[in-house]
Amino acid sequence: MVFYFTSDVADPPANIYVGRDKFENEELIKYGWDEDVWYRMLPGNIAFSQAHDSIAGAHVYLRLKPGQEWDKLPAALVEDCAQLTKANSIEGNKKDNVTIIYTPWSNLLKNASMVTGQVSFRDHKKTRTILVPTRLNPTINRLMKTRTVASADGLFAEKEQHLSELRAKAREKAKEAMKEEERLKKERRDEKYRREHAYEDLMNGGEAETGGGKRSNQDGFDEDDFM
After folding, report:
1. Percentage of the residues of the chain whose pLDDT score is greater than 70
2. What average pLDDT does the segment 9-13 reach?
3. 175 to 161, 166, 168, 170, 185: CA distances (angstroms)
4. Labelling 201: which of 11, 132, 149, 183 has CA 20 to 30 A away?
5. What was the pLDDT predicted at 122?
6. Is residue 139 over pLDDT 80?
7. Are the beta carbons of 22 and 53 closer than 8 angstroms?
8. Segment holding 84, helix H or strand E
9. Mean pLDDT of the residues in the chain
10. 142 pairs with which residues across the strands?
11. Mean per-residue pLDDT for 136-155?
12. Would you say residue 71 has pLDDT above 80?
């Protein structure tokens, strides 16, 4: 099962989801979105790259809203995610002063040599940590009131639908870009035509004023008659 929570400390409210165990953590790793931020508790005094799956704890995901940046989130929202991560760690829930690490889902690294639920990072510099001094029961209680449960079986279909929507938006954006490019090309063609014909129009207008280029004297004879 996957547990879904809503945090109202941000505007608009944020969606957070959590796997029940390491097997569902594996599904969340596989079917995460580029818009997700992953949270996990770090074992005390152990670098994450060496920790493997030595600490039992849930993988917590925050789904970003359009325009949000993973490393510029409101502090209160990061605190909500960190509190949920601590509360869903068997070891961490019993301790104070635990460290939570977080990174974009796209930065997670998973390969065949890793055990179930284990991940590392593609870029260790693209991570942040937050210290959680103690469990905040009011925060956990507030989040628990929003909890809903769904089967992990729907994760694949949900991601496929999301990717399909993204592809449709990309096609529409490309179509709009092509239309704009055609409009600009037409503007450039029209402007080039105006520039190229401006002198010709000016000369044609001058000839009309002078009777086709022939001048007459005061007696009404054309100067050509005296050539």
Report:
1. 81
2. 93
3. 21, 14, 11, 9, 15
4. 183
5. 93
6. yes
7. yes
8. helix 75-87
9. 84
10. none
11. 93
12. yes
Burial class of residue 153 in the structure, from the number of CB atoms within 10 Å of its CB (0-12 exposed, 13-18 middle, 19+ buried): exposed
Between the CA atoms of 180, 183, 187 and 188, what dihedral angle is there, to the nearest 10 degrees?
70
Residues with Cβ within 8 Å of residue 121, at least 6 apart in sequence: 48, 49, 103, 107, 108, 109, 127
**16: Cβ–Cβ under 8 A, 6 or more apart, which residues?**
4, 5, 6, 7, 60, 61, 62, 63, 80, 81, 84, 143
Indicate the residue type of 165.
E
Residues in contact with 206: Cβ distance below 8 Å, sequence separation at least 6, in sequence order:
none
Measured in residues, the chain has a length of 227
The residue among 40, 50, 56, 49 whose CA lies nearest residue 129 is: 40
User: What is the residue-wise DSSP string for 159-221?
Assistant: HHHHHHHHHHHHHHHHHHHHHHHHHHHHHHHHHHHHHHHHHHHHHHHHHHHTTTT--B-TTS-
Q: How far apart are CA 77 and CA 75, in angstroms?
A: 5
* Cα distance between residue 6 and residue 144, in whole Å: 9
* SS (HEC) of 112-139: CCCCCCCCEECCCCCCEEEEECCCCHHH
Q: What residue type is 48 in one-letter code?
A: F
Q: Which residues of 192-222 are buried (b: 16+ CB within 10 A; e: fewer)?
A: eeeeeeeeeeeeeeeeeeeeeeeeeeeeeee
Element (H, E) at 156: helix 155-209
**For residues 83 and 139, what is the distance between their CA atoms, to the nearest angstrom?**
7
